[in-house]
Amino acid sequence: MRQTGTLNSHETPLAILTICAGVAFLVANDALAKVLTERYPPIQILFLRNLLAVPIIAGLIVGVFGLRGLRTDHMRLHAGRGLVMALGAWLYFTGLLHLPLAEATSLVFSAPIFITALSVPLLGEQVGWRRWGAVLLGFVGVLVIVRPGGATFQLASLLPVGTALFYALFMISARWIDRSERLLTMMLFAMLFPMLYAAPLAIASWSPVQMGDAGMFLATAVLGSLGLALIGHAFRLAPAAIVAPFDYTALIWAAGFGWIIWGDLPGAWTLAGAAIIVASGIIIILREARQSS
Hints:
By secondary structure, this protein is mainly alpha-helical. Helix content is 75%, strand content 0%.
């Protein structure tokens, strides 16, 4: 993200509070989704969440920008990004069915590692040895959590890693969209196309929605939309080097929700791996900020 204008002294704490709130909303959305995976197929959860989120975002766009805010010059690119987002979300929801929330969240935070690695072939960027070292460090963190070959290894642990890879592709593809495109417009299509792709599979595996769960589906749509909007706004209030590290507060929220709802506490391996991934991500963020300054 780029910053425009001069940073106001009051904007930095506001940006930090904004991203922390956005992260909390997203983790709450994930916690609700994990509860719902116990009763509904992950593809149905993805479809219904986005079905409810699309009119919320569209209404916000029309209210702020009018109908012109719904237009885009990058429809094909949005369609491709939507497929990537749909695959990533489906892998994550499926992973939540089998993994503790804190472990799944920790593994998804390997996304900056993939973004750095993929920026070389896809964007033609040059990555120095320090950032390559951070990438390798991050993969070590992933291996510490997943522990392939260990007695507690689960194939399901690879699902959030797949989500991180698809999320990295989704974020990199944003570089190909003109910067004049509104953030809310990009959010709208990031919800719309996954909904369309998920619809046939969701209908084929449909499980009737219980009355008591309808509010939870609506909450996932509201929390997810608010979370993404607040995080995007935070990056506009302050430089990425200041804001991005607070994205990792998600690990605190994930551990808290996991303990309160399921009685899960992160194990020593998960904590150690998460710490390594966080360190790797912060190194990458700081090096990226230094390169762009």
